[in-house]
Write a structure and sequence with these properties.
The protein has 290 residues and is mainly alpha-helical. It contains eight helices and six strands, in the order βββαααααβααββα. The strands form three sheets. Strands 1-4 form a two-stranded parallel sheet. Helix 1 packs antiparallel against helix 5, helix 5 packs antiparallel against helix 6 and helix 7 packs antiparallel against helix 8.
Length: 290
């Protein structure tokens, strides 16, 4: 018999004044974007980090960039969730599509929203897209780290049942729905795996390359590393992450979206594969350029 870790009782709501509630999840986005903003501002004040020893823009333009990114994250994240995960439901209930307060944001959708936002910003302000994209990639991981920690606090997106010593007993009837398990159902804390891989480790690699090895001088290099690094991390964690309930059925309890007999791919893995391929291509392109 193994000793699982009880879920820490952390209220998802930090504080509430009347109907207005401040939640850890919302704060994670705000603080993560703010940290990313400061990372880019720090780099812009050091021209030697950039190609031709010239910063790509003045720090004053960061406020406009932040607005573009915030819109891209929210709009893209919501539309991605609607189109990638529950198109049938929202086709029948289109009035619920803009109701983001009910939950439902897709990282891959938010990622595509940021791609469009960065492209539009670069065109409007005549900033080289590779350099701008690298700056965003360098600063994106703090938000990823904090949001994954907020997912853990919310007791959502947990992993599959396991008997590993660091397994966590998540609250709620859905988390405890493990027919093959006797007693309390313990699961992989997959949110913490993603926080460590997609946020902490990937962030450390990107910042080290940017500030210590001149990676910002090679257009698309940091972007490629972010794409490939996030895609590989998410692809790996999906093997122990519990699939969304609406993807499961008695005939498909593992939630495979592509079935290859004993093996399959989840929706998260399918969406991560293009990131890995594009990321690898961008890395090769950046390293081959003079």
């Amino acid at each position: 018999m193994f000793a699982a870790i009880p879920f820490p009782e952390i209220d998802p709501v930090i504080f509430q004044i009347g109907p207005v509630a401040i939640r850890w999840y919302a704060l994670a986005y705000v603080v993560g974007i703010a940290i990313g903003w400061q990372i880019i501002a720090f780099a812009l004040r050091r021209p030697r980090l950039w190609f031709n020893d010239t910063a790509i823009m003045a720090p004053a333009k960061l406020e406009d960039l932040l607005t573009y990114i915030a819109i891209g994250v929210i709009a893209g994240g919501r539309l991605g969730y609607v189109l990638f995960y529950r198109p049938g439901y929202y086709l029948e209930n289109p009035i619920e599509i803009p109701m983001i307060w009910t939950g439902g944001l897709s990282f891959h959708g938010g990622f595509l929203g940021v791609v469009v936002a960065v492209w539009l910003f670069s065109k409007r302000h005549s900033i080289a897209l590779p350099a701008l994209s690298d700056a965003i990639a360098m600063a994106a991981t703090p938000a990823v780290l904090l949001v994954r920690l907020a997912n853990f606090i919310n007791a959502e997106l947990w992993g599959r049942p396991t008997d590993l010593p660091w397994a966590v007993i998540f609250p709620g009837p859905e988390a405890q729905d493990c027919p093959a398990v006797v007693g309390a159902c313990a699961r992989h804390p997959s949110q913490l795996y993603e926080a460590g891989l997609e946020g902490l480790l990937l962030g450390a690699i990107l910042l080290t390359l940017a500030f210590g090895f001149g990676a910002l001088k090679r257009g698309w290099l940091l972007t490629g590393i972010f794409f490939a690094g996030y895609g590989l991390s998410r692809f790996a964690v999906e093997f122990v992450r519990q699939p969304d309930a609406f993807f499961q059925s008695p005939d498909n309890p593992l939630g495979w979206r592509l079935d290859f007999g004993e093996w399959g791919l989840t929706m998260g893995q399918i969406l991560s594969l293009p990131m890995i391929i594009v990321g690898a291509a961008l890395i090769v392109l950046a390293l081959r350029k003079r």
